[in-house]
Structures are given as structure tokens and as C-alpha cells.
What we know:
- By secondary structure, the chain is an all-alpha fold.
- Helices cover 77% and strands 1% of the residues.
- The chain has a two-stranded antiparallel ribbon with strand order 1-2.
- α4 packs antiparallel against α5 and α6 runs parallel beside α10.
- The longest helix has 36 residues.
- The radius of gyration is 20 Å and the shape is globular.
- The C terminus is likely disordered.
Amino acid sequence: MKNExxxxxxxxxxIAPAILxxxxxxxxxxxxxxxLVFVIAxxxxxxxxxxxxxxxLYAYAQDFHPLVGYMFLASWLGSYYPYTIYTAxxxxxxxxxxxxxxxxxxxxxxxxxxxxxxLTNFYYxxxxxxxxxxxxxxxxxxxxxxxxxxxxPSLFLDILSSSVIIVCITLSTFIKADxxxxxxxxxxxxxxxxxxxxxxxxxxxxxxxxxxxxGNFGLIMAEFLMIKNxxxxxxxxxxxxxxxxxxxxxxxxxxxxxxxxxxTLIVPSVTLLYVSLFLSxxxxxxxxxxxxxxxxxxxxxxLFIYGEYxxxxxxxxxxxxxxIGALILSILIGILVYSKRKRSFNSIHDLGKTF
Length: 355
């Protein structure tokens, strides 16, 4: 039972339900957004029923083609590790609206707590994270206020933009779990959908802000855990310790100019996120022959392409160069690693022929 609670709370934390409950979208955006969100969640559910182990999305990308797998690895790690750093900055400055020494202290406390929990394997923190943010964003005492409906010309684009609001549900693929727990992915998204729905016509109470802060805390914790799991699956778990410890001084540096630090990291991070998701979800076309599943896979790939397009077209100045540079670099790293591994394999193969 304890194991089931931890698995569910980890998956539930990846959708950050408190964030969904405080989005306050128009109902005309929230409902179609949920349908598109569910496509990604359903495909994630199908994928973990194929293989559910520490390598997660990387294993699916590798099965599609080794080159795709290496490009995924470069882009996914390049996306999520910065996320674990700049989100610790985001919580005090942008969610809690703090400044000065209090914001600095909270950002460092957030990162230190996560690093300690990660290195000591204290995963009982996940039920606390999951259910506390859920409790703080239940709509008790909330005021009736409809979300603003965007003009018709921009309505479709708003739906597409918000449809990737819970792509972090894909983090659940990096759990080593029994397939009988795969329904937790769908349950989590359905609960999150309900919260997204009531947030469209209710204005959150002041307590909800703390729930949103905990939701972001939970995302950092989940992301760091999945980095650890992936590296463990690659027999590189010792790297996690160095990445975790290095994140603390990096958060400290980020406080020197939090807005510059946050903007500088988030653009390449999100750019690489969409690349990694696109590469890993190509596996849908390898694993499934059903036309229905392939159509859903096509919808997911379209959403990731749009997300990438949206990031690049809305980035200006050095941020645009960062986005394009990150995209090119992840592809080049993948090609270089693939070429090196292929040469090594061919050398061993040729050596075998001489005996």
C-alpha cells in the first residue's frame, strides 16, 4: 500500500494540480485544452504499458532508432536540469511575489530540501507534496469569476499554447513500476482536468498561491528524481550527486539577477523540451499499428511542433539565438555520440571476425 501511495503521488505531482487549479482559463479554452492534454496523457499510459523502467522516454526513442535516442538524451537532460534550477528562482519571485533577502533564502531552502530528499532517497515527501497542494487548491471560499475568453482569431492559438500545460506527465515514464499502476496516469490527469475546469469560473483564494508554490516544488522534485532514475538506468547514477550539489550554488547565482537568470535559462530549456518529446513520441508509430493510435500520435507530434514554433517565433534578441543554438547543439551531440558508438561497435565486430 505504501508503494502504491508513493507511485500515485509521484505521478500526481508531475501534473502539478495546484498550477492547473490556478490557471483561470476561459472555459472555451479549458475544455478543448483538456481534450488535447488527455491525448498526451493517454499515449503516455500506452507507452508505460509497453515498457515501464528507469530509462523511460529514452528507451522508447532508442527503440525507434539509436540516433533518435541519443538526440533525445542530449535534449531531455539539457531541458530538465536547468528547469530544476530556474524553478527554484521562479517560486519566491514569481509565485509568492517576494523580493530581497526573503526570496533568496526561500529559493535556497527549496533547492537544498530537494537535494537532501533526493540524495537520501526520502520519497515519502511526495505524498506530502501531492496532497498538500491538492488540499490548498480545493475551491472552498473561492469567488465566482469567469476566465476571460480571448477574441475568436486568437482562441485557437490559445488552445494550442495551453494544450502542453501538463507535458510533465511524461516524467512518469521514468518510474520503475508494475504495469497495473499505469491507470494512475489517467486518474491523475482526470483529477487535474476537474481542477482545470473549475478554475475557469472561480477566482482562487489567497491560500491557492501556496498550493501553486508547492506544485512547482513538486515538479522540481519529480524532475530531479527522473534525472536520477534515467542516469541510474544508464549506470551513471553517481553523476546525479554532482548535478544535485551543483544546483545549489547555481540557484544562489541566479538570485543576483533573477529575471535575467530565469529568462536566459527558460527559453533553451523549453526549446529542448519540445525536441525531446517529439523524438520520444515517434516511438508511437513503431509500437502501435492501430490507425486510431497513430492519429493520436500525429496530434501529439503536431502539438510539440507548434510548441517549438511558438517558442522560437516569440523569442527575441539573444534569446532567439539561444533557442536555435540549443536546438542545433542537441542534434549535433546526438549525431556525434551515435557516430562514436557506431564506430566502436564496428571495431569490435571487425575484431571478432579475425578470431
